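Holo model, S-adenosylmethionine. Inputs:
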Amino acid sequence: LTRDVLQSVMVQPTPSPSSTSTPDPVANLKRKQPSTSSLNTRFGSFPHPSLLVPAGSQVRSASGTGFIHILRPTPELWTLSLPHRTQVVYTPDSSYILHRLRVRPGSRIIEAGAGSGSFTHASARAVYNGIHENPVTQSVPTEQTDGVTKGGDEGTNTTSDSVPSDGSTQIPATLTDSQGRVLSFEFHADRASILRHELRQHGLHQIVTVTNRDVCASGFSLPEPELEIGGNTYATAVFLDLPAPWLAIPHLTRENGSLSQTKAVRICCFSPCLEQALRTIAVLREQDWVEEDLVEVAHKRLEVRRMGPNGREIGAKSRSQGDDEIKVASVEDSVSKLKKQLWHRKAKQARQRERLAKRRKLDEDGNEEVQDDDSDVDMDANDDEDVEEAPETAEEEGGNGRLHLFNQGRVLVRTEPELKTHTSYLVFAVLPLPWTEEDEIAAKAKYTLPP
Ligand code: SAM
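Output:
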């Protein structure tokens, strides 16, 4: 789904034009929705109302000539279509990061800054542990947004937006500790506010807590007792996508309740340059994090095709025919072409034999002026112009009727021209549980062999 479709499907109707200048970024966001009423693609035009059908449906274009399938929104689709307010983390990075942070259903992850919410959506799905299968439909708490949208630094994730009427699932308000949570921090008030709005539209607002906060100055505790976790985040995973993560790292401690008291904690810091990554590693070491690891994800898709005997790619777009259709040579076409080439080659050999015989005869007759029959040679050359060098054919190989794979063309490998990821360095580290005197005694008692 493209952005305008996602938004037209999920966004509430545009408010009346009477209130034009409002400082509320969410109201402005609604006002900016595209006015087009159709999605125009090369498969045809699709009026937006025709797209309001269950996920998985096929929708025919207005003219009936093309069709599209309606997909359920996923974090990957959202990353590709979200309105960019900042640079975003793309799927090749976010999937790797969540895997390395061992984020799983039920995990509690701290994220700062939230930016455009790309990583937020990916992590919301990763921590989510199946409440969608048994949704509790309820009205969402309503609250004024003043402290949030007008630069207050302690906003919570509740807003006055109404619940989407498109059937998106409501998550129960009373999540227990094991039900997974994304604790997201963003110091730009408007970005925090817009992200809350989007999360509510996507039915994720009770999995993600967006807090408007400068984490470098004020740390990661939640502004007010949040549901059942009493202001503590107790995270087991941390993702920092900040300009200066080394300023935020000292705020991540078990003592102040931001990190889990009972489990090892994993961190990833996303930095665009090596100097920043090294500075981050230095501070992590000072703060007792271990197993520092620096990674760059170089995601590359390889496009593999075969090159035909005429030097053109098999399956390449046919420009001469002026269409977009992908032409792939059929086996029948290839065999008939090979037969034609063989026929030309045999005809040429026959002409050469004939010419040699003629020359020999003239020699025997004592004729000294032997002229090469140039016209014949030229004719051969002309014949060859349209005929490529024929590869070995099935008949020449003993006529078993099979063509070897290598006769189907040379393998050609191209790399994807445009990568949907922006290169950054990922610093990973682990904060292990402290090893106490009691642990030492217990371990000795358990593992020491009797004398
Ligand atoms: N990871 C995000 C995504 O996938 O969409 C993009 C994050 S963006 C590159 C960085 C964000 O960090 C910006 O939105 C910025 O406002 C926020 N930020 C910068 N310094 C911050 C701080 N000290 N505390 C909280 N957020 C901060």
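The chain has 13 helices and 13 strands. Residues 1-21, 132-176, 318-326, 369-403 have pLDDT under 50 and may be disordered.
Archived with the compound record.
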